[in-house]
Specification:
Oligomer: single chain
CATH topology of the largest domain: Immunoglobulin-like
Structural class: mainly beta
Strand content: 35-45%
Shape: globular
Number of strands: 34
CATH superfamily of the largest domain: Cupredoxins -  blue copper proteins
Helix content: under 10%
Low-confidence stretches: 1-7, 9-26
Bound molecules: ascorbic acid
Length: 580
């Protein structure tokens, strides 16, 4: 028999535990807030690199407004599509969308495009502090300028300190319209988009500007005048760097100032110091700089193209010590961009990244063994004369019904039901163009066992032209992964994994695959939904360089109908939540 006092004590204990739980939640996410935004997406005239063009803007601004929130907050974006003739979706790059996979903003995968004139309300929790961004994920709308920053401030203490911060979103820009670019990519003969006309820092660049000829304008109210970073001496600043480039891989440097890398894709890393940093499309970093140089001067901040043979002027802006005139140019030349094809140097930077040793739950080491390993061979091929990128010889062509709905409601006609290949032929020689230049197109899905650990080995190869293999940064939606290894040449099953780092491998959502090499990532399939995993170079995704993964979709109880009313689900009644 339990005495009254014991019962009371038990009750007290339970109540006490409940309050402790609330306190812990409160400490993890003090005062979570709901942050509301109203956005209109429309095309406007703008001069990102001093040449007027049309860009896809949000609320009349390019880049779109920066979202700032605190970890634990809910972000609500009421988006109205004011484009005249095309749908739109926005992907929140790096946000986990745990429990809200229909808010991931990927056309054909997580939702239907929002039609012209329609409004869709994105609602999601930003549970992890970090440097993120958002961008269009329909057609090549990211190349058209549809992007902006998303900064999630930490709700608890961070493993480093700083006095001030700047946000730097990097992109590349073409004068040729995105529609023309898309036509070229699917034309026979193929017309490549070529290298960007300009690089942009926070949407600002200067086409072909020459310091020698004095044609760069560092001051003024023009839309292309650089975003200058004004600093006080002897302070520590956090630079939040993110790259949403369509094509360019970049090397970034701040003249005379070392950078200490502390964050990658919203994950703390073991700090390390560099003179310059490599950043590929889809990645983000935080670096700390100390303003400990001569405060009577300004210093160059530069970003230049690497990884492909460059044909674009280096992007420049200034680190401006507050007592110096903001437009006063440094007497010295801007930092030299390392050789574009110095892949040894790029790999050495990638190898420096390590997960921080002060482990938090999110940064624990990966499970030692995967349940399944999928090998994805990246090749350039032909399909009916068009140039495509293919994964295990299948080039991704997205269906009209979003996978999230077709998997959940078992609409078997919505996509190819046969599972895509897990690997590629043993005899495939990655050092030469494919013996069979042709690929097929398809839209099958890799179905992953819920809560299983999955390895994906991304295997690079020779493209269609001899002696050519390119850089491909692969981005995974809905998850972070551990980058467990990089290697040159072909991944050898049973051997290559012996070198995996399962101790302090960096946690990320984007990983670069180097020419003629492989990159292995490991993740736990614990986020119910359908998720894109693809090369983040916009023309490459457009040419089919991606796969779709899905896990635990049958666990999703209620999916807002508004996300999925198209294709085979077009008849779904309005204002209904589908579930059960
Ligand atoms: O996808 C691409 O196509 C071109 C080239 O391979 C064919 O012209 C290029 O450089 C790419 O990255």
């Amino acid at each position: 028999m339990i005495s009254g006092t014991t019962r009371d004590a038990t009750k007290l204990l339970v109540i006490g535990r409940f309050f402790l739980f609330l306190l812990a939640a409160e400490m993890a996410f003090p005062n979570p807030t709901v942050r509301h935004f109203r956005w209109n997406v429309e095309s406007i005239f703008w001069s990102p690199d001093c040449i007027e063009n049309s860009v896809m803007a949000i609320n009349g601004k390019f880049p779109g407004p920066t979202i700032r929130a605190k970890a634990g907050d809910t972000v609500v974006v009421r988006l109205t599509n004011k484009l005249n003739t095309e749908g739109v979706v926005i992907h929140w790059h790096g946000i986990g969308q745990r429990g809200t996979p229909w808010m991931d903003g990927t056309a054909s995968i997580s939702q239907c495009p929002i039609n012209p004139g329609e409004t869709f309300i994105y609602t999601f929790v930003v549970d992890k502090p970090g440097t993120y961004f958002y961008h269009g994920h329909y057609g090549m709308q990211r190349s058209a300028g549809l992007y902006g920053s998303l900064i999630v401030e930490a709700a608890a203490a961070e493993p480093f300190q700083y006095d001030g911060e700047f946000n730097i979103l990097m992109s590349d820009w073409w004068h040729r319209s995105v529609h023309e670019q898309e036509i070229g990519l699917s034309s026979v003969p193929f017309r490549w988009i070529n290298e960007p006309d300009s690089l942009l820092i926070n949407g600002r660049g200067q086409y072909n500007c020459s310091l020698a000829a004095g044609t760069c304008k560092f001051e003024g109210a023009e839309q292309c005048a650089p975003y200058i970073l004004t600093v006080h001496p002897n302070k520590t600043y956090r630079l939040r760097l993110a790259s949403t480039t369509a094509l360019a891989s970049l090397n970034v440097a701040v003249e005379n100032h070392k950078m200490v890398v502390v964050e990658a894709d919203g994950n703390y890393v073991e700090p390390f110091e560099v003179d310059d940093l490599y950043i590929y499309s889809g990645e983000s970093y935080s670096v700390l700089i100390k303003t400990d140089q001569d405060p009577t001067k300004n210093y160059w901040i530069s970003a230049g193209v690497i990884g492909r043979k460059p044909n674009t002027t280096q992007a420049l802006t200034l680190l401006n010590y507050v007592s110096v005139h903001a437009g006063h140019l440094p007497g010295s030349p801007p930092p030299a961009v390392p050789r574009w094809d110095d892949f040894v140097r790029m790999k050495s930077f990638a190898q420096k990244l390590r997960s921080i040793s002060r482990n938090s739950a999110a940064l624990s080491p990966p499970p030692v063994r995967p349940h399944r390993r999928i090998a994805l061979l990246n090749t350039q091929n032909l399909f009916l004369g068009q140039i495509k990128w293919a994964i295990n010889n299948i080039s991704l062509s997205l269906p009209p019904t979003p996978y999230l709905g077709s998997i959940r409601y078992k609409l078997r006609a919505a996509f190819d039901p046969s599972p895509p290949p897990e690997s590629f032929p043993d005899g495939y020689d990655i050092t030469v163009p494919a013996a069979n230049r042709n690929c097929t197109v398809g839209n099958g899905v890799y179905m992953l066992g819920f809560n299983t650990t999955v390895d994906v080995v991304l295997q690079n190869a020779n493209a269609l032209a001899a002696n050519t293999s390119e850089v491909h940064p692969w981005h995974l939606h809905g998850h972070n992964f551990w980058v467990v290894g990089y290697g040159d040449g072909r991944f050898v099953e049973g051997l290559s994994e012996k070198g995996f780092n399962v101790k302090d491998s960096p946690v990320r959502n984007t990983a670069v695959v180097f020419p003629y090499g492989w990159t292995a990532v490991r993740f736990v399939a614990d986020n119910p939904g359908a998720w894109a995993f693809h090369c983040h170079l916009e023309p490459h995704l457009h040419m089919g360089m991606g796969v779709v993964l899905a896990e635990g979709v049958d666990r999703l109880r209620q999916i807002p109908a508004g996300a999925l009313r198209c294709g085979l689900m077009a008849d779904m009644p309005a204002n209904r939540t589908v579930g059960g």
